[in-house]
Amino acid sequence: MPQAKTLNARDAKLVQWLTEAYAKEAELEADLTAHIALTEKMSYKKRLRKHLTETRDHKRRVASRIKQIGGTASASALPGVPNAVGEVAGKAVAAVKGQVGAARAAISPQAETHLRNAQEELREEHVEIALYTRIETFAVEVGDKDTAQLAKSIRRDEERMAKYLDAELVRLVKEVVRAEIPRDQRTTPRRRSTRRRTTTRAASARSRTATGVVRTGTRSTAARKTTTAGRKTTARKTSASRRTTSRARATTSRA
Fold this sequence. Notes:
This protein has a domain at about 10-185: Ferritin, core subunit, four-helix bundle (Ferritin), CATH 1.20.1260.10. It is about 85% helix and about 0% strand. It has 6 helices and no strands. The protein has helices at about 10-40, 40-70, 85-105, 110-140, 145-180, 195-255. The mean pLDDT is about 80.
């Protein structure tokens, strides 16, 4: 049986933190599977399925990196806990969470179930973002470019999912309001008053009129300048013609 590789301080820490990431991905894989089964809103369900695929890919890539460094991927994030025990514990936690979610869905309206699940998912995304941020930063500081790049890539996926959930949370709260709160107890969206619209239109009309006046005035000024220049030219031509006539007469008289 081959002996386990002895890791230096840097690699031991990387394996420790990557193992935590692996365990979190395994936990979220189970959570997302349960949430998808409880979700009826198709757009939300589709995004959860996409992230489940991403989560499984993250889990595979993290396990591969742990093996490359010299460690062994384990679903237990606790140092000293055997892999088999850790995996059983992780599955037990996921099973309990799934049962709690199913029980909550049985007694809660659908909109409320969606909202609670999205809140849990958003919390877990931020946990993962923090986890991969510290792995990336540590890897950069110790010169492990491969681990840094892996952590950065996964962190970006988690940030995109967190951004989606931020927006979805707002939409789901509004759905709870529409589903559970009587119309007379909701805030009526404000509408722009007719007076405000009329004032805006009048101001726009005045602006267009003023622009037209300026343009007309500009054209009138240009026309006046052209007319004046034409008169000056005509006057110069007339004066020159008169001088020529006077010279001709003077020459005739001398002759």
